[in-house]
Amino acid sequence: MIKLDNVSKTFYLGDEKVSAVKNVSLHIKSQEYVSILGTSGSGKSTLMYLIGLLDQPTNGKVFINSQDVSTLSDNELSVIRGQTIGFVFQSFNLINRFTVLENILLPTRYHKGKLDFDPNKRAEDILNKFGISDRRNFFPNKISGGQQQRVAIARALIMNPKIILADEPTGNLDSKTGDEILDLLESLNKDFKVTVVIVTHDKEVGKRTKRQIYVKDGQIVKKY
Amino acid sequence: MTNTKELSHLVKTALADFKRNKVRTFLTSLGIMVGVMSVCLLIALGLGLKNYIEGQFESMGANLIMILPGSGFTGEGGGGFGGGGTVGGVSFDERDINTLKRISEIDYVVPLFMKGVFVESGAEKKYASIMGVSEDGFKLMNIEAEYGKLFDKSDNQSAAKVAVLGNTMATELFDDPVNAVGKTVRFENLRFKVVGVAKKKGDREQDNGINIPYKATFGSLNPDKTFWAIYLGVKSDDMVTIAKQKAETALLKRYAEEDFAVTEQAELLETVNQIFSIINTVLIAIGSISLFVGGIGIMNIMYATVTERIKEVGIRRAIGATQKDILLQFLTESVLLSLMGGLTGLILAIIIVLIVRFFFPASINLISVVIALVISTGIGIFFGVFPARRAAKLPPIEAIRHD
């Protein structure tokens, strides 16, 4: 599903050269439930953005679904992000001007051509399943953090993606709510057969996944 | 995102944003509003003025030659249809009339004496232009009687104190034009009997005027027995040029070349058209400057909006928006902003024109509406495309990490 082949990412902070990711190779299989663990500045977030096609590697190749994405145009990358990958962020990243339902439906608006599902019906189904259907017409800043993260996951799920990338999904939540969110992500992996990758600094969160990948100084130090 | 459903979504979203930022939206579209309003008004007034003047000329025949004092309409020092005696050059008299009558191509010669006076009838007192003309003047200006009759040759020969009132003037003095016939009007200590009321012409000068036999002006009204202008009716259109030449030659025996001008209707119309196209161009140029400044205002606010929404752009890119999607989103917003200003400007212009219409025949036509819409859409696109491109070209990774 996801394959990184000797991937490096360097950038410059002023005159200083920073190697955020160094020669990383890794393989995440379809329907896996994986965490990428590391401290702040370890390069785990950069790794996630490379996998999520929001960033391009300086060296090496990224494969999504066996497709070498280094050859793709910005337009094609956008289409893969829309159809194959769903993002969940620490700070939820909902658009506050839109209601819960509008936020969830937003990815469907960027789909070119006909959808193979009814977006409104699917959104309703997900809202029901996530227990936030009474919040559908609320604006994100009027609902709790846990509910906002559910909305974000619903938005990530609406296009029926193969991969969900979650960047510190519990970072802004208390531990009880965080656990509920992790339960939800786990059920996506189990029930929806989605490949779930959680990026976190929290070993307790990492323990809940079936496999942990440890990152330190831009390199993978330990794999299980 | 290019189908109508998505466009309507973009529009709906943009409108909701405007609603949230009412003051900012209003201030931003103000420039375009003023610009479009001025362009529309200028076109409306220019068009109205042109129609007004053309209407005045067209109510007379095409085979009309005008002899005016000074160098006439075509050069400096020229007249215009002011009151008599206010323009330079000579004053014409009956000798000129007799000279001109001898030209075989000319059907009739109509002297014109004009004077602004206060006309009284009972308790009513109005300002009006007295026009002393010969009976042929009615033919020349296509005037027909609605009530009573027009004065005739014998009235003129006998200098009868009779008057034919313009339709509006008759209404103002006697409430209903039908009441005017047989009554007396007074001006400058003279009493004239109303023998007829002319049909409404839509020509302000005539509808508000009073026609009297020119010989009846001789005396206290016109002690020198002179005329402000002489109009010639040519027998047919193809004789206009030769008749004009002959009239010139005849008058040159008496007057210097710069003392009078012989002008035909077509020439006059062309000159007026030229003057108005120049005026229109200048006015539109002024409007364009306010539109340009308005456009800069839109560009400015759109840059601010893009900066405010960098994070949002990142989120949208992450969930599948292409550069084109982002471009369209911001472009829709700037076009709508501009279009809203343009429409408001257009509506204001229409309201102003409706008010001005009581005094002046200004008109908003379809062209003004189309121009208003095209200009504001064009400005929205032109000045919106730079900020929108900036948003579209933002690297997704930087946008999503932006706080």
Question: If you had to describe this structure to a student in words, what would you say it looks like?
Answer:
The complex is a heterodimer of chains A (224) and B (403). With 224 residues, chain A is an alpha/beta fold. Chain A has helices at residues 44-51, 74-84, 100-109, 119-129, 145-157, 175-191, 203-207, and strands at 2-13, 16-28, 33-37, 59-64, 67-68, 85-88, 163-167, 195-200, 211-216, 219-223. By secondary structure, chain B is an alpha+beta fold. Chain B has 13 helices and 12 strands. The longest helix of chain B has 44 residues, at 265-308. Mean pLDDT of chain B is 86; it is low at 74-87. Chain A binds chain B through residues 49, 52, 54-55, 74-75, 78-79, 81-83, 86-87, 89, 93-95, 97-98, 106-107, 109-112, 155-156, 159, and chain B through 1, 6, 9, 13, 16-17, 20, 311-312, 314-325, 395-397, 400.
DSSP E strands of chain A, number: 10
- The portion of residues forming beta strands of chain A comes to 25-35%
Total helical elements of chain B: 13
| Poorly predicted spans of chain B | 74-87
Helix content of chain B: 40-55%
The value of Rg of chain A in angstroms is 17 Å
Produce the secondary structure layout.
The complex is a heterodimer of chains A (224) and B (403).
Chain A: E1 2-13, E2 16-28, E3 33-37, H1 44-51, E4 59-64, E5 67-68, H2 74-84, E6 85-88, H3 100-109, H4 119-129, H5 145-157, E7 163-167, H6 175-191, E8 195-200, H7 203-207, E9 211-216, E10 219-223
Chain B: H1 4-20, H2 22-58, E1 64-69, E2 92-93, H3 94-101, E3 106-121, E4 124-133, H4 136-140, E5 145-148, H5 153-157, E6 162-165, H6 167-174, E7 184-187, E8 190-198, H7 204-207, E9 210-213, E10 226-227, E11 229-234, H8 240-252, E12 260-264, H9 265-308, H10 310-318, H11 323-356, H12 366-393, H13 396-401
Parallel strand pairs in B: 4-9, 6-8
Antiparallel strand pairs in B: 1-11, 1-12, 2-10, 3-4, 3-11, 5-8, 6-9, 7-8
